[in-house]
Design goal:
alpha+beta, ten-stranded antiparallel beta sheet
Length: 668
Amino acid sequence: MPRPCPCFPPAAMGVLDFDSCPPSSPQRPDQELTWSWGHKPRSALDGAGAMAPPPPPPLAASTPLLHGEFGSYPARGLRFALTLTPQALHIQKLRPKPEARPRGGLVLLAEVSGCCILRSRSPSDSAAYFCIYTYPRGRRGSRRRVTRVFQVDGAATYEENRAEAQRWATVLTCLLRGLPLPGDGEITSQLLPRPPRLLLLVNPFGGRGLAWQWCKNHVLPMISEAGLSFNLIQTERQNHARELVQGLSLSEWDGIVTVSGDGLLYEVLNGLLDRPDWEEAVKMPVGILPCGSGNALAGAVNQHGGFEPALGIDLLLNCSLLLCRGGSHPLDLLSVTLASGSRCFSFLSVAWGFVSDVDIQSERFRALGSARFTLSTVLGLATLHTYRGRLSYLPATMEPASPTPAHGLPRAKSELTLAPAPAPPVAHSPLHRSVSDLPLPQPALISPSSPEPLPILSLNGGGPDLAGDWGGAGDAALSPDSLLPSPPGSPKAALLSPITEGSLETPASSELLPPTPDGDPVAIFPGGPLDHLLPPLGTPLPPGWVTLEGDFVLILAISPSHLGADLVAAPHARFDDGLVHLCWVRGGISRAALLRLFLAMERGSHFSLGCPHLCYAAARAFRLEPLTPRGVITVDGEQVEYGPLQAQVHPSLGTLLTGPPGRSGREP
């Protein structure tokens, strides 16, 4: 017989009395439930104000929150004891034969997308059904969708059973979204705020044209299971997303999520910073669900969430799980000033040389998906080039915990400058049509045990598609029972404003602020923050900068940890460390040594190879001056004009939807 929990009898149901439980081990910082969905206060608790009691202390990972005995569905005479803790749901079979060693009885909350309450269509069935959606890893490491349905039948009436099922669903949802639980054990539906409202932007041509299919088959079902409300728009052309967010009513959304590669998020961030109200607009949380060829930021989000490295659909499912749980993290942005005087913002990287050559050359093989980078790398190694240039950077005041650079970094002996270039006008192309919500196909859902179709479930904030999971031969069909009524401010009760076409007035050229105390003017721009560390491009650099000149195979300036979903270029980097991580490879390296560097980069161990040609520096700003007449420069994988450029880190300027950090506490 299994041993019952010493704090309560096996048949007890409901919220535990924390005072009756044995003391728990101290809570580690990475176990605290401090994240929450979005950046706005929860309306359900706004009325409490200063009268609200202080929040309870954080719970240990093993603290039991709920315990109960439930039946199974489809009905097979099985009974289970469920125990919910802040980290997992423990399931132990009680009947017909108790398990001494439960198999598959641990459901990690990190693998749960959401839950709901179901009701039998049989009028004589007084039970409520508690449904949990999970995505555990299979034997081969890939995630698969598993639905667990438990029969809540401890009371005589459906209303009482539903109240118990709702209590479980409320506590589980609070744990998934990082919402605090009351210390007195009182659990009500008022703990849950309205569903977060997301704007999904999908590039249907991303990932060999599979992005839309992956979105329909994996993303939409999962975020519907989580109870998130969303509107979805397919982009039609380059810079479409940038134009959309310029005219967006941001107050009606809790986040903007791109379902594509890194390029679509680049458009969104730059569109937000193009707005006249950019200071507020850039605070809008943005997220990424990887359905493209280049998924570098998603790889960093995946690592931040504590998951093992993944590619393809596994990476998409990992990032979708993190999105469902909510939680955001400050994101450093890099302002990049080009030779023409125009400026763009980067969340990922600035590359010159081998990396940018491979990136742009791979566009010819886009039909191959992520394999295009492998083919382009092989071609790049076969025709390896070196580039003459000058790299200057402002060293960080405090070096991060990072590998020791293989080469020392010499100080500049003199200030080197280039002649300034005139700044041509910057124009915005208008939208050519209005954008409306994209209707989602919803075929009739048929239950195996019922001749009538199940009700069509709304994908915009409604319940998930579970028709195939409900019931078996001889079992009454189940239908969804809403957890909470739609609050007045939810999208079901109030129409959202249409997404309008935005036209922004952009000055033809940058202006200059009055001289700094050092006597140098500082360039300013109509959108985005002031680059206070940078003099205008072409003027001398202030003291304290380091300048290197020579032949380079590549120069890479990267903000997060990942250069690709499986390339960890700066393993010690974090989203908000306030640094740009400079990596460069000097000329003279052999093709074999360069290949070894990139192979080691898959594990983030390239700095440990001791390659004398590989160098690293942490900086707050840098200037790149190509001295070779021809070449390719990319910003976040997008080709920009070739010529001198400079960039500065703006710490925590943006907000990234990352989900809660992993239990290991690792952050990219």
